[in-house]
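We modelled each protein-ligand pair independently. The example shown here corresponds to the zinc ion entry; the chain sequence is given first, followed by the ligand as SMILES.
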Amino acid sequence: MQKGSRKESASMIEKKINSLGGYGLFASQIFLPGTLLFTEKDWYADIALGGWEVHSIEEVNRFPESEKEMFLKYSFDLSFGKTMGTFSENHVHNLTNFLNHSCGPNTQFDGQDNIIAKGTIYPGDELTIDYGSFVVNFDQSFQCFCGTSHCRSRIKKEDWKVLSLNPENKFPKFLSEAILLSNQIPV
Ligand SMILES: [Zn+2]
């Protein structure tokens, strides 16, 4: 891991209200393709503070609807079947929680659990990632208005299968490994 460059990059990213009225992350400097923006240490920093839980798909589906929605809001999948999330915004601190979705993103995972610049990112640009590249357990409840020519509108838990056909797309470690061993993926 390029720890030094990550620290430098992270200080050049700001959390601000975006055009849709929610929080988003914005670059305050140029980032060239491949620049390391976040490592797994960034989101595990929140988990170390407590209040985050791992649940199976079946467990999450048994939560009351409002609890399920809150749990999934900042959740991320650890594997096929297991998702980490929290029931309170009080446990949400790290910048990585506010990285919004786009169907034409300017960041992506790197095949490990780091997030890198996918294209050139200019000062003032909102940082985005394709949620379909790491979501495998639950369809997303929001509708996408990213405005890109390939906008899929709804983000589904199966989107990674199509995204994996393009060798330029990269995924978190668990999903990269599953794609490599595709005969072991549950269908
Ligand atoms: Zn979209």
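The CA atoms of residues 100 and 139 lie 16 Å apart.
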